[in-house]
Amino acid sequence: MRNDAHDELDDVPSLTTDARDRDSYEVERAEPARAPTYGRATPPASSRGASTGALWALVGALMIALGGLGWWSFQQINLMEQQLVATQESFARISEEAAGRIQDISGKVVATESTVTSGSEALRLQVRQLETKVAELTKQQQAAITQQRSQDGRLEQLTTDLKAQQGEADKFAAPLKTLGTEQAALKSELATLKAAQGGVGELEAQLKRLSGEVDALKKIGNPNQAISRIEQDLLVLKGDLETRPAASSNTAEFDAFRAQMSRNISTLQAQVQNLQQQIDAMR
């Protein structure tokens, strides 16, 4: 970095030459003094001609060498040209073959591209169809999920209702069992009642027969034996009716029927007694 304020310009060297510089330069330019030749002879002219011939011989040898080198170079150049021509022909042939192969490959590539294009279009169409199917399946799945949820809700509701009904069924189980037992008992009583009704039918037939006999006795003049027999039959019939067990303690209908039959038998007995009194009075 320069600092001009502190530069010292008092000791500037001079650029002019002085006497010492000129003397030394002139001494160097002075030619050296020739020493005197005492007893030395000058070379002869024949040695100068021999050296010239050797020089010419060397020049000729060099020319011959250059000519041989040129001829050899020319031959090599011709050979290289031939090789170059052959190489060019080979390259041309290879280029033609390569061009044919390239055309074949280009045709195959074009065919492959067309095939790939058609295949890609077909794949795109298939992909679109698959996407459509997937969308439909997704909608169906969502609908199925919604339906499944609805069915799950219904199933839960049905389960709750079933549990409630089971609770109610448990409540009615004991009464139903009791009703079943009572129904079995009623069936048994009904069978007994039917059997009793069969016996009652027989009693009705006997009563009708006895009534007919009583009416017949009224028309007979001396019916003592027949009256005695009828009275015995009425007593047997009344005892059988009274001793016959009822089908059930609460079967009021059967009791009413038995009372009616008892009244009928009592009426017949009264008629028989009146008939007997009339017969006795006639005697």
UniProtKB/TrEMBL annotation:
Keywords: Coiled coil, Membrane, Transmembrane, Transmembrane helix
Keyword Transmembrane helix: yes
Gene3D superfamilies given in the database record: 1.10.287.1490
Membrane-spanning segments: 53-74
Compositional bias of kind Basic and acidic residues: 18-32
Signal peptide (residue range): none
Region ranges (Disordered): 1-49
Domain of life: Bacteria
Residue ranges that the Swiss-Prot or TrEMBL entry lists as coiled coil: 120-147, 193-220
Keyword RNA-binding carried by entry: no
Protein name: ATPase
Organism of origin: Pseudomonas cuatrocienegasensis
